[in-house]
Design a protein that fits this description.
- The complex is a heterodimer of chains A (about 110) and B (about 120).
- With about 110 residues, chain A is an all-beta fold.
- Chain A contains no helices and 9 strands.
- Chain A has a 5-stranded mixed β-sheet with strand order 1-9-8-3-4, with no helix packed on it. A 4-stranded antiparallel β-sheet of chain A has the order 2-7-6-5, with no helix packed on it.
- In chain A, strand 5 and strand 6 form a beta hairpin.
- In chain B, the strands form 2 sheets. In chain B, strands 2, 4, 5, 6, 9, 10 and 11 form a 7-stranded mixed β-sheet that branches. Chain B has a 4-stranded antiparallel β-sheet with strand order 1-3-8-7, with no helix packed on it.
- In chain B, about 0% of the residues lie in helices and about 50% in strands.
- Classes of the chains: A mainly beta (about 110), B mainly beta (about 120).
- At the A-B interface, strand 3 and strand 4 of A face strand 5, strand 9 and strand 10 of B.
Chain lengths: ~110, ~120
């Protein structure tokens, strides 16, 4: 699976959009981009995933560049409960067949 | 998505002893995994628990230290053997299903282990 690079930490004002970047310059054509987050003292939680097209769900939006070498997770209206460590992961399968390899993630702090 | 019950949620153990952690899922799943998260660190995969056969361990992890059982498609255990303070970590169970379209994995809430 391709390696990802994320900034170690970011701050965001409550109610504003949080934009979390991820570089995955060695991603292969069949690898998906997944985002998880881990709120303190809990297990990681799936947020969103995508292959080439931008994706949106009830939690977030995922913007993937045309060359697929980077992506951005967008939380449109950050709340204090969004304070967590966010992990960007790239992997081959989009079903549950393979395990996940976590990087160091970005610690997002939402400030009142 | 599947609901995972992981027990115990936390424990404090003496060095040299062993602790068995249980992971119970409310539905049959193809894949079950065990992760370790050391204090202030990211998650590291220990092994894939295979139903009816020996677990598949990642580099740096061995069966003698982390024996794993998976007797059926809804249950697995991880034992941390002959513990030392360096084993103090959060241990997490994760499940996925090869047959499902629903993406992503579900994680248990973890077992916080402190070895004294």
């Amino acid at each position: 699976d391709a390696k990802t690079t994320q900034p170690p930490s970011m701050d965001c004002a409550e109610g504003r959009a949080a934009n979390l970047p991820c570089n995955h310059s060695t991603i292969s054509g069949n690898e998906y981009v997944y985002w998880y987050r881990q709120i303190h003292s809990q297990g990681p939680q799936y947020i969103i995933h995508g292959l080439k097209n931008n994706e949106t769900n009830e939690m977030a939006s995922l913007i993937i560049t045309e060359d697929r070498k980077s992506s951005t997770l967008i939380l449109p209206h950050a709340t204090l409960r969004d304070t967590a460590v966010y992990y960007c992961i790239v992997r081959v399968s989009r079903t549950g067949a393979n395990n996940l390899f976590f990087g160091t993630g970005t610690r997002l702090t939402v400030i009142p | 998505s599947a609901v995972i019950s992981q027990k115990p949620s936390r424990d404090i153990c003496q060095r040299g002893t062993s602790l068995t952690i249980q992971c119970q899922v409310d539905s049959q799943v193809t894949m079950m995994f065990w992760y370790r998260q050391q204090p202030g660190q990211s998650l590291t995969l220990i092994a894939t628990a295979n139903q009816g056969s020996e677990a598949t361990y990642e580099s740096g992890f061995v069966i003698d230290k982390f024996p794993i059982s998976r007797p059926n498609l809804t249950f697995s255990t991880l034992t941390v053997s002959n513990m030392s303070p360096e084993d103090s970590s959060i241990y997490l169970c994760s499940v996925g299903d090869r047959g499902r379209i629903t993406p992503g994995y579900t994680f248990g809430s973890g077992t916080r282990l402190t070895v004294v």
